[in-house]
Design goal:
Number of strands of chain B: 7
CATH topology of the largest domain in chain A: Rna Polymerase Sigma Factor, Chain: A
Helix content of chain A: 55-70%
Number of helices of chain B: 11
Low-confidence stretches of chain A: 82-102, 163-167
Strand content of chain B: 15-25%
Order of helices and strands of chain B: HHHHHHHEEHEEEEHHEH
Oligomer: heterodimer
CATH class of the largest domain in chain A: Mainly Alpha
Strand order of the largest sheet of chain B: 6-5-4-3-7
Number of domains of chain B: 2
Radius of gyration of chain B: 23 Å
Structural class of chain B: alpha+beta
Structural class of chain A: mainly alpha
Chain lengths: 167, 273
């Protein structure tokens, strides 16, 4: 079944909450996140005919967002200065047992991951994409995705302190 | 400190991510029973997943900024589907009936413009979007539309596409005229909560009121026994109100319905009383 442009718009609108969630993880900033969603939606609307029936619309939009973010980071140039998570380290603390387990809020911990690992973790663990979809979003082979996921997870577990996670 | 081999760490990951082939999964399940370190690693990864989801989950409930929604609104000039023809005699008849119920017609009038503010309402969620991430809890709704959930206390709450529509839709924009979900009138109940009428599909409609924890359904009705094809004729987007629904509105409402400006203002305040 082919979707009309109107139906596609409605679908994209329905996806906005998820796009914003992914953008929040990618950009680590609320305002940047909505700017990114806006850029991606504008691009998507301009190229609605590029979306292929039978493929996932959410994956297509995530991929547009990923590319838009890469462009944005390039454009800013001073990425580390501008986009380093605020107050990194401020919330580093000690667990009750006195060991030097670093306990960061999950968002701060995510913010410390490299972009590529953070996107992989976000797509699979938060957005629930299958590996195949996530790999396509990121334009990487599944093996690369798997290794980014593994590294990202290890880093998160370390930062959050093993056994210290509150679901 | 990590007792697991690299292969096992990857196995744990793909197991938790539901990427392990079914055959391997059975064998892995068996190992979990006998290998506490492996089981602990699985539990840790599951906890990480849950933590991430709860950390980012609240973004889903935030109101979507109007600027983003505006990008996807459909311009006024867009042709409406023929099924919702402007001069549907049934719709016009209903319109008169409704004015008798609700005297201050000026606020209502716009709802009866064919593909005016009422019909041309912002319809979100709907079949396609919710299908991609349907919640796991039991739900009532159309075939593909997750719209209603029964809470533990028995209250019915709006979910999925319906919740998004109730939360986001204000007069004057439209996203998908073909969507079964519409939001119609907004008014305050005696507790000063905002209530909104909605249709789930051609046969189901109701009223939901915004409580602190979401939209709780105050009235729900289903036109049972009528063939769907016939309902489609009578219950177009321009005539979604049955006499019983109108009675329910009258019983609930305290004061007039909101006009477009008031709706926008109420939405901006997150529908808080």
């Amino acid at each position: 079944m082919s979707l009309s442009p109107l139906a596609l718009r409605a679908e994209i609108a329905a996806l906005l909450p998820r796009l914003r969630r992914f953008a929040r993880a990618v950009t680590r900033h609320r305002e940047d996140a909505d700017d990114l969603v806006q850029t991606a939606v504008e691009r998507a609307l301009k190229h609605l005919d590029h979306w292929q029936d039978g493929t996932r619309l959410d994956s297509w939009l995530f991929r547009i967002m990923k590319n838009a973010w890469i462009d944005e980071v390039r454009a800013r140039g001073r990425r580390d200065d501008v986009l380093a998570p605020e107050e990194a380290g401020e919330h580093v603390g000690y667990s009750d047992t006195g060991s030097r387990e670093i306990r960061l809020s999950i968002e701060k911990a995510m913010g410390r991951l490299p972009d590529d690992q953070r996107m992989a973790v976000s797509l699979v663990l938060v957005e629930g994409l299958p590996y195949k979809e996530a790999a396509q979003v990121l334009d990487i082979p599944i093996g690369t995705l798997t290794s980014r996921l593994a590294r990202g997870r290890d880093a998160l577990q370390r930062m959050l302190g093993d056994g210290d996670l509150q679901p | 400190m990590n007792a697991l081999t690299e292969d096992d760490r990857i196995a744990v990951m793909i197991y938790v991510d539901a990427e392990m082939p079914a055959g391997e999964r059975t064998a892995f399940d068996a190992r979990l029973v006998h290998e506490p370190a492996l089981a602990a690693a699985v539990a840790r990864e599951r906890a990480l997943r849950a933590t991430l989801q709860s950390a980012y989950g609240p973004v889903m409930d935030e109101p979507v900024p109007a600027g983003l929604l505006d990008l996807l609104a459909i311009p006024d000039g867009e042709p409406a589907p023929a099924a919702h023809a402007a001069n549907d005699p049934v719709a016009i008849g209903r319109s008169d009936a409704r004015r008798a119920h609700l005297p201050r017609a000026q606020h209502w009038h716009r709802h009866w413009q064919p593909w005016g503010a009422m019909a041309a309402c912002l319809v979100l969620g709907v079949v396609f979007g919710t299908r991609m991430y349907a919640p796991q809890s039991p739900a009532i709704g159309g075939a593909d539309t997750v719209a209603l959930n029964v809470r533990n206390d028995g209250a019915i709450t709006a979910q999925g596409g319906l919740r998004v529509a109730l939360e986001q839709r204000v007069a004057g924009t439209v996203l998908d005229p073909n969507s079964p979900i519409t939001v119609g009138l907004t008014f305050r109940n005696h507790a000063q909560q905002y209530c909104r009428t909605f249709t789930l599909d051609s046969a189901s409609s109701g009223i939901a009121c915004r409580q602190s924890d979401g939209w709780v359904v105050a009235h729900l009705e289903h036109a049972a026994g009528t063939p769907a094809s016939a309902i489609g004729v009578y219950r177009t987007a321009a005539s979604p109100y049955s006499p019983t629904l109108l009675q329910a509105i009258d019983a609930l409402r305290d004061g007039d319905t909101l006009d477009a400006t008031a709706e926008t203002a109420a939405k901006a305040k997150g529908w808080k009383p």
